[in-house]
Each structure stands twice: as structure tokens, then as C-alpha cells.
Design a protein that fits this description.
Blueprint (H helix, E strand, L loop, with lengths): L4 H61 L5 H27 L15 H24 L8 H15 L1 H16 L2 H29 L23
Helix pairs in contact: 1-2, 1-6, 2-3, 2-6, 3-4, 3-5, 4-6, 5-6
């Protein structure tokens, strides 16, 4: 009796269909899971940026409510604006170097140059701004404890290996055209952003009062407005 080739063909075909459907299902589940993770990260990042914007607006409001300029508030506003620019640059680098599933990172020579240059400049400026603010609040460290803690955390990021690696090595990696290496730098940017998110959220939480409002910096004591009269 001859083999039932047609029956075997049907069985093999059914198996191929089942295996294919299984692969499609698993890939779909992976895509859905990755999309969910990316959505959660984006929501968290938007929340972080909104907090930064709220802080900047609050500082501007506090600064304009007084007829005498408050040097502490002015300096801290400048710091938060620089932090905002650093976050923006890191977001751009993360998005372009470590894109969504199925997309390739930008590896054209010169890509990200503006973000990297801006990141280098803002990194150095922020270090100087932090030093100036510390000098300005000498003698009032207890009053400005939350702000100083936040700046110490940010300074640790500025001096950390991850950010220095992005600033000093990413250009060469992009020019080399190695997509997988470029993705790793996108991952570094993502890790730094997560740290920034945490520090910004903690500062926001510490400064809020029971009624949900807060003052980013204490009001200047009478007779202490950081101006020189002569």
C-alpha cells in the first residue's frame, strides 16, 4: 500500500499554519507589550516635563511679585531652565538613537550634532550655575535644603560616566555607522532621563504644601534682598 502523500501534505500544511499563527501571535503580544512600555515611559516623561514647566512658571511668578529682584530665585530659575534644556537634548538623543521597535537609529555622519553640542554647553553651564547658587545661599543651607539636595543629585549626573560618555563618544560612534552601538547610547540617555525624572518628582513632592501649592524658594527676609546700596 502506497504512502498517503496528500494526507501527509495536508498535515504538514496545517502544522505550518499553526506554527505561523503562533509566531504571529507571539510577535503581536511582544509588540503590544513594547508599545505599552513605551507609552508608560512617554506618560512619565511628559509628567516630568510638565513639572519642570510648572516650576519655571512658579519661579517667574514669584520673581515678578516682588519689586526688588531676588537673586536666589533668579539663579534657581536659570538652573531649572538649563535642566529643562538638558532633558530636551537627552530626549532627542534617546528618540533618535533608540527608536521604537522596527525602526533604525539615525547614524548619518553629523546626526545629533546640535543636541550633543547643546548638551555639552548646558552641562558646563549648569555646573557653574550650581556653584554660584551654593555661594549665594551660604548661611541659609537649612532653609534651602530641598533645592540643595536636588542640585547635588543633578551634579552627580553631570559628573557621571554615562553623560560624559554621550558627550565625548557619541559623535564618533555615529560617524562609524554602527547601529547597534548607537542604540546603546540611546539606552544611556534613557537611563539618565529616568534619574532626572526621579529627582525632579522628588523635588516637586518635597516643595508641595498640604494644599497642593508650593513656593519653590522661600521669600527673602526683610533687609536681605541681595542688592548693594550705596
Amino acid at each position: 500500500m502506497g504512502r498517503d502523500y496528500w494526507g501527509q501534505f495536508l498535515k504538514d500544511s496545517e502544522k505550518v499554519v499553526r506554527d505561523t499563527n503562533d509566531i504571529i501571535r507571539k510577535n503581536y503580544e511582544t509588540i503590544v507589550e513594547n508599545f505599552g512600555d513605551e507609552t508608560r515611559r512617554m506618560i512619565k516623561r511628559i509628567d516630568c516635563l510638565n513639572k519642570l514647566i510648572d516650576m519655571e512658571l512658579q519661579l517667574k511668578t514669584e520673581s515678578t511679585e516682588s519689586s526688588i529682584p531676588d537673586e536666589k530665585k533668579k539663579q534657581f530659575l536659570e538652573i531649572m531652565e538649563t535642566v529643562h534644556r538638558i532633558v530636551d537634548s537627552l530626549q532627542n538623543i534617546n528618540a533618535l538613537c533608540n527608536p521604537l521597535i522596527g525602526e533604525q537609529p539615525h547614524v548619518n555622519p553629523g546626526a545629533h550634532e546640535s543636541d550633543i553640542s547643546r548638551l555639552e554647553t548646558d552641562r558646563e553651564n549648569l555646573r557653574n550655575q550650581i556653584n554660584c547658587f551654593r555661594q549665594t545661599v551660604v548661611g541659609s543651607e537649612n532653609v534651602f535644603a530641598p533645592q540643595l539636595t536636588f542640585l547635588t543629585q543633578v551634579e552627580s549626573i553631570l559628573q557621571g560616566r554615562a553623560l560624559r560618555t554621550i558627550c565625548f563618544e557619541l559623535r564618533n560612534v555615529i560617524d562609524g555607522g554602527d547601529s547597534e552601538s548607537v542604540k546603546k547610547y540611546g539606552g544611556l540617555a534613557e537611563a539618565i532621563l529616568q534619574q532626572m525624572d526621579g529627582h525632579i518628582c522628588m523635588l516637586d513632592w518635597e516643595l508641595k504644601n498640604d494644599n497642593g501649592s508650593y513656593q519653590l524658594l522661600p521669600a527673602e527676609p526683610e533687609g536681605d534682598n541681595n542688592t548693594t546700596l550705596f
